Structures are given as C-alpha cells and as structure tokens.
Amino acid sequence: MTVAPSELATQPIGEAAPVAEDVWQLKLPVPFPLRFVSVYLVEGEDGWTLVDAGYDHPPAREAWEAGAAAAGCDLARDVGRIVVTHFHPDHIGAARWLGERTDAPVCMMEREIPFSRKLWGSSDTGSFEEYLVRYGMPRGMAEEAAAVVRYALPLPDEMIPLQPGEKLPMADGTARIIHTPGHADNQIVLHDEARGILFAADHLLLGITPNIGLWPESEPHPLARYLESLERMRGLRADLVLPGHGPVFRDLDGRIGELILHHQERLETMWHTISDHPKTPYEVSRLVFRGTLTDHQRCFALAETLAHLDYLVLTGRAQQVQQAEYVAYQAA
Q1: I want to staple 170 with a disulfide (CB 3.0 to 4.6 A). Which of 85, 143, 160, 175 is the partner?
Q2: Domain residue spans of the chain
Q3: In Å, what is the CA distance from 252 to each residue of 258, 291, 302?
C-alpha cells in the first residue's frame, strides 16, 4: 500500500494556504536540497500559535511577512506563542528573529533548550570533524562537511520549557505535546485530538523518510527509539497529518507501516553490505546512498548509516571492529 498525498497544501514555495479551519501552512524556502520547510499558523482566542520558525535567511523572512499577511495574522500584534519542535536549523534557525518580530515567547521541549544552546553556541568544528574521520570519511571531505553542518547560531535569550503530555491552547481547543525521539532526541509533535490533526514536524514525512542519524551528541540507539516512538503512535486519532516537509497526508497508520518497512529493508541492505568483510560506515554509506551527493548530504548519509549499523549491533546481527585509525562493522 502506498499512502497518497492530500489534495491540500499544493501552494508554491514562499506562499501560505489554509489546511484546516484556523490553520495555515506556510512553505518557507531553505538553501539546501529539501527546498522548503513547512511551518504552521494557527489562529486562536489568545492569539496565533506559530509552529516552527524556519531557517533564518532573507527569503524566509520575506515569506513570513507575506504568508502571515495572507493568513490574516499581523506578526507585530497577533502572535501568542512560537513553538519550536526541535533543534535543527530549518526549524529553530529563525526563532530569535521571529520572537523579536512578534514579541511572543518561544517555546520548546525543556531538555531541548540547554542542548540547543550548547550545540549552536560555538563554531568549533574540530571534534565533529574527528567524528566523521573516525568512521571513514576522508579528511578533506570531513573538514568541508563539518563547516557546513556545525556553526554558531543565535538563539532567543529566553525560551519557555514544554513538557511531554502538556496541553497548549490551539485554535478553539488544545493540542497535546508528544515526545517523538529519533530524528532528534527531543523532538515534539502536537496532537489536536478533538479535531484529529497532528502537527508531525519531521517525525512522519511523506515522499521522503526522516533522517535518523547517529551523531556525536545523540543519545544511544536513535533508530531503536524512532521505531519505538512510531509504534506508540499507531491508532492515534489523527485524520490530517501536517509534516515539516513534503505533502500533507491522512493515513497515519498506513504511513507508520511504510516507514517501519523502509527501515527493515534498509537494515537488510546494510547487513548484506557488511556480510563479506568489515567496512567503515562511510564505505557502507557510499554503497547504500548512491548518486551524486554534496558533502552536506554525505554527512547525513553517514549519520544515517551509523544509526542502522548501531541497530544491527544492538540486535546481535553485527559487531564493531577497529581497523587502524578507523572503526568498521562486520556481520555477526
């Protein structure tokens, strides 16, 4: 079964469109191959709730101004809160600017706040570069990849902590905060149960799969935690799924099944790749993620490969071995 995209939200990048009563989707441009990130504007009695801030660069700021106006939201007066779902720069990047533009509080999961400040508080890429090299990426590529993936990012001076299970005012009701680790350790999604709407961030995407990577700062076993969090969402009352990228869709359980199957197939592919002799994760990533990729994309491919190899070790199907200055994996 293939989950079909909804007929909603087919507007061009840079524009806003209604996706439900009092809910608008705004496609903000980003300067990398994903092309856009979807943020959401939700009108309520206590002001508008903005879900995610987007990447901070001039085209996105212009889209915020035009998109909010099209939705009937005065950024200077009407915003009640800004909810950031996770620390990635296409979601948190413009949070400082947007908070200052709206004079509204920026809210994020409590554990994500100090984590974000630590990660984005420095432009030192040395340790991240060594991480990439340790798993087989050539030194020159690692230097360039680290420079475009790790950099200093200005964040709001104050952020309001949110807790899993907490309910936020949303439209004329509430939305429950659900912790969904995997793509990011402290990612949250918002579930408006009364209306059957899920603001899914990057936990559930259609057309592409969320990047589940093992990074230097990751908590252990991200793929295992992602699959567990997907299973926990089966049967959730959500007739409309509003993701951070790609098409809007409606079949939540169907998409959960597709994502789980995708990772099962990817695990089998990687296991077969290391079944003949040990390989570094970078070597595996080059075999699994083929085609012409930028250094930035190669970095994410390596992190995703590491998450899958880690899962194979966790489930007893592979083992880690040391090869000179590199770490390699072989089938158990």
Answers
A1: 175
A2: 16-121+150-262
A3: 10, 31, 28
- The pLDDT of residue 308 is 98
Question: The tokens of 285 are what?
Answer: 């990533």
User: Tokens representing 178?
Assistant: 């659900």
Lowest average pLDDT, out of 31-35, 155-159, 251-255, goes to 31-35
Other CB atoms within a 10 A radius of the CB of residue 61 amount to: 17
At 323, give phi and psi (nearest 5°): -125, 100
Phi, psi of 144 (to 5 degrees): -70, -40
**What pLDDT score does 33 carry?**
85
Nearest partner of 246 among 25, 21, 1, 22, judged by Cα: 25
Helix or strand or coil: residue 125? Answer: coil
With beta carbons less than 8 A apart as the criterion, state whether 261 and 224 touch.
Answer: no
Residues composing the chain:
332
Q: Is residue 87 over pLDDT 90?
A: yes
DSSP codes of every residue in 27-87: EEE-SSTT-EEEEEEE--TT-EEEE-----SHHHHHHHHHHHHHHT--TTTSEEEEE---S
In the CATH scheme, what is the code of domain 16-121+150-262?
3.60.15.10
Residue 207 DSSP one-character state: S
pTM for this one?
0.96
Q: What is the mean pLDDT of residues 184-205?
A: 97
The answer to whether 139 touches 149, Cβ cutoff 8 Å, is no
Pairwise CA distance, residues 56 & 39, whole Å: 13
CA distances (Å), origin 100, targets 103, 119, 204? 5, 22, 30
Q: Is the pLDDT of residue 1 over 60?
A: no
Say which residue, 296 or 41, is predicted with more confidence: 41
Separation of alpha carbons 291 and 294, rounded Å: 10
- 298-332 pLDDT tens trace: 999 999 999 999 999 999 999 999 877 899 999 99
Query: What's the rounded Cα separation, in Å, for the pair 120 and 89?
Result: 9
Residue type, 61: R
